[in-house]
Amino acid sequence: MNDTPKEVQDLFRTLLMQRSGEERLKMGCDMFSTSRALIRSSLDGKGLDETEMAVQIFLRTYRNDFPPETLTKITDWIRASRNKY
Question: Longest Cα pair distance anywhere in the chain, in angstroms?
Fold first, then answer.
């Protein structure tokens, strides 16, 4: 759904593109960090150790970007690599 008028979309894009590439990159990184913090806070209290927390954050972030068999390989790798130490 998009209920934003075209003029507002165009203004937003113009203002965004006036920022430097560095500023836009920082904005994107900040938004990604915020989203991970929100995911983490939604998982707090579920009794997850740090390894399972990492798996769940990965799944909530990228679940729709990979086929199930690839997700399984990646989550197995996360668990194995974090449990080495």
Answer: 54
- d(CA 36, CA 57) in angstroms, rounded, equals 7
Q: What is the pLDDT of residues 33-77, one digit of tens each?
A: 999 999 999 999 999 999 999 999 999 999 999 999 999 999 999
| pTM for the structure as a whole | 0.77
Which tokens in the block code for residue 31?
């938004």
At a CB cut-off of 8 Å and minimum separation 6, what does 79 contact?
51, 55
Tokens of 61: 């972030």
> From CA 55, how far away is CA 79, in angstroms rounded?
7
